[in-house]
Design goal:
This protein is of the alpha+beta class. The protein folds into three domains: about 70 residues, Multidrug-efflux Transporter Regulator, Chain: A, Domain 2, CATH 1.10.1660; about 60 residues, Orthogonal Bundle (434 Repressor (Amino-terminal Domain)), CATH 1.10.260.40; about 100 residues, Jelly Rolls (Sandwich), CATH 2.60.120. Helices cover about 30% and strands about 25% of the residues. It is built from eight helices and 15 strands. Strands 6-7-8-15-10-13 form a six-stranded antiparallel β-sheet, with no helix packed on it. The protein has a four-stranded antiparallel β-sheet with strand order 9-14-11-12, with no helix packed on it. Strands 1-3-2 form a three-stranded antiparallel β-sheet. Helix 6 crosses helix 7.
Length: about 280
């Protein structure tokens, strides 16, 4: 049986991550009895594990946060909350969400400790439990791209900083097509590392972006610089939510990573990019 702050996770097959009611109550900011009352009122249907204990996934947590907002902050009754939930709940974490186990878990712990943050502070901001974050940092649990992206953003870094994508032995030469494929979490965006080595101060990555796809959420990093060269196609880039650029084949754009930026392919054909991100 799991302890109150323990996350259930099948480390062998990467099964879906679920939390017990005590853990979820701490994340949402209520007591377990409140969640049981919401369940009895028909606001949420909890799942049960093999031992018949209630378990909740990331989607359930998002729903519970909504219920808390409607009930405590907006003083809505059960009927009104049910009506709103039927209209505005969206699936934040898909049922087939992938859990990655190849990432620099020790680096995540190092960033947290170097920044002087506690497990409780970081987990609360990201929306996971302290016990789950501890398991991630110690390499005992996998991680979704969504959670890794939130952690990377909290520390002001790119997710590429934390993916374990390098070979054990550095290679000076990476031949065409031999670069390791990386995860983006972005639909229609494929990327491939063009360099090897664990101690690099920059990342060199090849992007292939399908029409209408890209990163539509403005974001920034604490340090570093970005250099993008369009090998083919066209790329729309917005900086600081105000400056717009159309970068065409053969064009390049360079900016500080601390500037908010988002981008996408506005064309009708795939766009191929060389993207270099420095960490200093």
């Amino acid at each position: 049986m799991l302890s109150e702050l323990e996350t259930q996770y099948n480390e062998q097959d990467g099964a879906k991550i679920v939390f017990n009611i005590s853990d979820v109550a701490k994340i949402v900011g209520v007591v377990p009895a409140t969640i049981r009352n919401w369940e009895n009122a028909g606001l949420i249907a909890s799942k049960r594990n093999e031992s018949n204990y209630r378990v909740f996934d990331f989607n359930d947590i998002e729903i519970l946060k909504k219920i808390k907002e409607y009930s405590s902050q907006k003083n809505m009754n059960i009927s009104m909350i049910k009506n709103l939930l039927s209209k505005d709940i969206t699936v934040i974490f898909p049922e087939n969400e992938k859990y990655y186990k190849e990432f620099y878990h020790a680096m995540l712990k190092s960033y947290r400790e170097d920044g002087g943050y506690t497990l409780e502070e970081v987990s609360k901001t990201v929306g996971i439990s302290p016990s789950y974050l501890s398991r991630i940092e110690n390499g005992k649990a996998g991680i979704t791209f969504e959670v890794l992206s939130k952690l990377a953003g909290f520390y002001g870094e790119s997710t590429l900083r934390f993916f374990d994508v390098k070979d054990d032995v550095d290679r000076e030469l990476v031949k065409r097509g031999e670069g390791k494929k990386l995860e983006t979490g972005l639909e229609g965006v494929a990327i491939q590392s063009l360099i090897d080595g664990r101690e690099n101060t920059f990342e060199a990555v090849r992007f292939v972006v399908n029409p209408g796809c890209g990163d539509f959420k403005a974001h920034s990093h604490k340090s570093g610089e970005e250099f993008i060269h369009v090998l083919s196609g066209v790329l729309f880039v917005m900086l600081d939510d105000s400056k717009e650029f159309i970068v065409k084949t053969g064009d390049s754009i360079h900016f500080k990573s601390a500037r908010y930026h988002k981008w996408h392919n506005p064309g009708k054909k795939s766009t191929e990019l060389l993207w270099i991100h420095s960490y200093i």
